[in-house]
Structures are given as structure tokens and as C-alpha cells.
Amino acid sequence: MEKLPSREHDFCSKLRQASVVERLRAYISWQRSGAPPDGIPPFGPLSINLDLTSACNFACPHCVDSGIINTGESIQLSDIRGSLETLKQRGLLSVILIGGGEPTLHRDFEEVVCFSKKLGLQVGIVTNGTRLDRVASVAERLEPKDWLRLSVDAGTRETFIKAHRPRVTADLHAILQNAHDIKKAHPAISLGYSFVIVWDGIEAGGHVLDPNIDEMVSAVHLAVQYGFDYVSFKPCLVRLEGSGRESLLNETAEERQARLSAALRKNLDLAQAAAGGRIAILQSVNLQALLAGKVDELKTQPRICHMQYFRTVLAPAGIYHCPAFRGIENARLAGAGGYADSGCFDATSAELARSIFSFDAAHECREVACFYNHANRELEHLIAGSCAPMDIVPLEDDNFFL
């Protein structure tokens, strides 16, 4: 069941793409030169998570961002425009509109999508599906390799309500039908059905979560019925008390771990059969590690997180160097205006240079089953190796999302 990273998660290859390889070479050269803080290569991130707002109309008990949502904060459109223009000038290629909160609740959601496409950026949208009318109004602007992913996490109406506790009227089948209508009208868009797997005994925020592991197959049937392109399965994460880190919990009891792995493998095999080749079944990096009994490997980080140079999070509360550390102060690079113009960018870049060496990932991320673990280790290998940066062979451009 252990697999190589899928195209979506093969971050090492993404950094070798023709439009990206120059900054990879520059970063390796900078590291080899001793990485003087004032010499950090003048590129911006390749990809950002753009958290438009902290507002959310769900109260998902498994939400890893529950501590930072509905604070009343959002990013002003003028700051978003300035940030995206500045970052585009510095090499930004993709933006993911995601949480914190629910992006479609931002008052300027449509304008942000249109402005991003005007700049030539790849755009991904992650939504709970309650305001797909706003996505539909700008769907014609989306192109091949742009995508829309719904956080569904269920295969029945009842479990959907338990998993998300909507504060508004929300019916699973109505949401899926609206997604189907967008896909039918704009077939070039990639449409994804996201399923966070919850099994017995997981607690978050002092509450035991309702399991959905037995609805993986029914979710695939729904995804096929409503014309989705893929179902993405990933394990439930929790925020750890005290540190606030986002973590995949280890099952310490060997017998319980064996039962969980067997149930996951069985359901994934059944899900693949139910897909029947009509849609793709994707497994996240941390789900693959869980199945292979290698979660601890993903939690054993090199000291330097090199990937913070290539992707960041722009949120109402500020700029963070990692999605797993949203809202955590020692991962904060700047305020929300830290990319708003060239001067702000330079100040944030200087702070990033400091963070690359002061943030000890081996310690700070020791409980995080990091998606970027393999990419960080590959970067360590390239920096320590003898290959000249100019000898790194570029790959064909494809997917710039990190």
C-alpha cells in the first residue's frame, strides 16, 4: 500500500519545474555560501495559502483552526491586491483560497478570484460548499489546472451534519448538486471531494469526534454520482494542547494500530473498486505514512525547514511560514500587510531569512507529520551535494501548488 508521492504531493519535482528551477538554484547557492541574511535570493514564495477571512458558518469539531476562526478579522481587498501584485513580481505562481475561515464569506471573494486570474496565477479554492453561488459567478475565469475542492468528510446527510455542525441551512446533496452544476458548465475545472477520516476514539477540543471511517465507500459513490474528478482521503489531525501544533496522533497500542490499518486498507480497496476508474482516489502523504507505519518518520524533521522559502500563509492575523502553524507566534513572519508593497516585502524577506535559521524544525515540528518532510530532506541533500546548481535539470511546468 505504500506509494511514491502523487503528482499533487511530489514537491521535490515541483521545485524543479522550468518556471521554478531558477529560484531553487539560487536558494541552494545561497545556502552553500553561508546564507548571509542580506543575501537571501529576492524571490517570493512560489505558492501561498491565502486565508481571506476568519469567518466561518460551520462549527466543525475536528477543525484544526477552531482557535482562530470567527475573530472578526479579514484582509482588506486593497491589501490583497497589493500583496498579490508584489508577489507576482517576485515569482508567485499559485494561490490557494482556503481557511482559517470559509473563503466564500469574504465580501470581495469574486474580485479576489478575478484579480488572481488577471495576474495569471493558478487558483485553488477550498470551501464547505454553502456559498457555491459565489464560486459559480466566477467559474468562467478558472482554467485547466485550477481547482475547486469541497470539504465534505461524509457519505451521508446525517454524518455530514455531525461532522460540520453548520450554523446555516446546509444539505449534503444540495451542495453536491451545486458543485455538479459548476463542473458541468465549466468542465476544465478540477473538482475534488475532500474526506478527512475520523476513527473511533479521536478527541478534539475536549470532545470525542463522530467516526466516519465506514462512509469512505459511500462518499466515493456520491462523488461519482455528482461528477467529481477525485476523492482525496486524509487522516484527521488535531491541535495539541499547549504547543498548538497541528499533529497526526500515533496509535500507541499495537493491536489498535493493526485494526486501524486493516480497516483503512479495506475501505481504500473498496473505495478504489467503487470508483471503477471513473474518478481518482488520492491518499495524502500522511495517510500513506500511517498505513506504512511510518508516521514517526514524517515527524522526524531536519533542523532547517527549507520549504518556508517556497511557500507561506497570508492570513488576517499575519504571514506564517507554514500552514500547520497558523496563528502560532513563533512562525509569524509579518503582519497581514507584509507583502503589500516592495518595501514591506523586503522587510518580510529579511525576517524569513532569520526564520530559516532560528526556527528549529527538528524541535518545533517534532509532533508534526509534515507533508514537506521529503522535500526538506531532498533540499538538504542538494545543498550538501557536489552537483552544481546550474546542472539541475528543469522539468516541464505543470502544477505549482505547494
Question: Could you characterize the architecture of this molecule?
Answer:
- The protein has about 400 residues and is an alpha/beta fold.
- The protein has a single domain (about 45-300, about 305-345), classed as TIM Barrel.
- The chain contains 14 helices and 14 strands.
- It has helices at about 10-15, 20-30, 75-90, 110-120, 130-135, 155-165, 170-185, 215-225, 255-275, 285-290, 295-300, 340-360, 360-365, 375-385; strands at about 45-50, 95-100, 120-125, 145-150, 190-195, 205, 205-210, 230-235, 240, 245, 280-285, 310-315, 320, 330-335.
- Helix 8 (about 215-225) packs parallel to helix 9.
- The chain starts with 10 loop residues before the first helix and ends in an 18-residue tail after the last helix.
List the helices and strands and how they pair.
Elements: H1 11-14, H2 21-32, E1 47-51, H3 77-89, E2 94-98, H4 109-118, E3 122-127, H5 132-136, E4 147-151, H6 157-164, H7 172-185, E5 190-197, E6 203-204, E7 207-208, H8 216-225, E8 230-235, E9 238-239, E10 246-247, H9 254-275, E11 280-283, H10 285-291, H11 295-298, E12 311-315, E13 318-320, E14 332-334, H12 342-358, H13 361-364, H14 373-384
Parallel strand pairs: 1-2, 1-12, 2-3, 3-4, 4-5, 5-8, 8-11
Antiparallel strand pairs: 6-7, 9-10, 12-13, 13-14
